[in-house]
Amino acid sequence: LPGLGAQLLDAVDRAIRSIERAPERSTLVAPEIRRYLMPRFPYAIYYRATPDQLRIVAFKHHSRRTDYWHHRLPD
Question: Taking the model in full, what pTM does it have?
Answer without folding.
Answer: 0.82
